[in-house]
């Protein structure tokens, strides 16, 4: 679970169109180096500009990116449903989304391990069974990163 990296707040720019700051770009690349060790099979991301850029700047060559409209402005229960729909052939999924939902999903899956989930933060959660059986409390936090 990855929160998009630091984004600009430019007057007159719609929330959906906000892009990353230079720091956000650096943090995305840094996260990509760490996430690459997990050998992800798929990235699912909100299509907003800042999440799109975060996902692309991870630099995970050969890992497909699917932009899922429902991740943008999703409530936590909607993120649960999105993850539950993951193809059973996928072993490692990277979900790139927005707070507070991404942090809430981490907390609901694995407990309150961290009080904050800064832009560019990610949590690695291990699940004991198939995606479709994902429920609150079924995950174990095994790693994480705060930029």
From TrEMBL:
Gene3D superfamilies: Phosphoglycerate mutase-like. Transmembrane segments: none annotated. The lineage of its organism: Bacteria, Bacillati, Actinomycetota, Actinomycetes, Streptosporangiales. InterPro entries: His_Pase_superF_clade-1, His_PPase_superfam. This is Histidine phosphatase family protein.
């Amino acid at each position: 679970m990855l929160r998009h990296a630091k984004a600009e707040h430019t007057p007159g720019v719609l929330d959906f169109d906000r892009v990353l700051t230079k720091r956000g770009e650096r943090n995305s690349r840094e996260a990509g180096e760490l996430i690459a060790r997990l050998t992800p099979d798929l990235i699912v991301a909100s299509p907003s500009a800042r999440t799109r850029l975060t996902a692309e700047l991870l630099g995970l060559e050969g890992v497909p990116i699917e932009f899922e409209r429902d991740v943008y402005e999703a409530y936590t229960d909607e993120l649960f449903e999105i993850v539950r729909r993951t193809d059973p052939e996928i072993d490692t999924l990277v979900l790139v989304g927005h707070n507070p939902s991404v942090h809430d999903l981490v907390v609901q899956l694995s407990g309150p391990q961290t009080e904050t989930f800064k832009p560019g933060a990610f949590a690695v959660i291990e699940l004991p069974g198939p995606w479709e059986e994902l429920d609150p409390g079924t995950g174990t936090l095994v790693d994480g990163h705060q930029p």
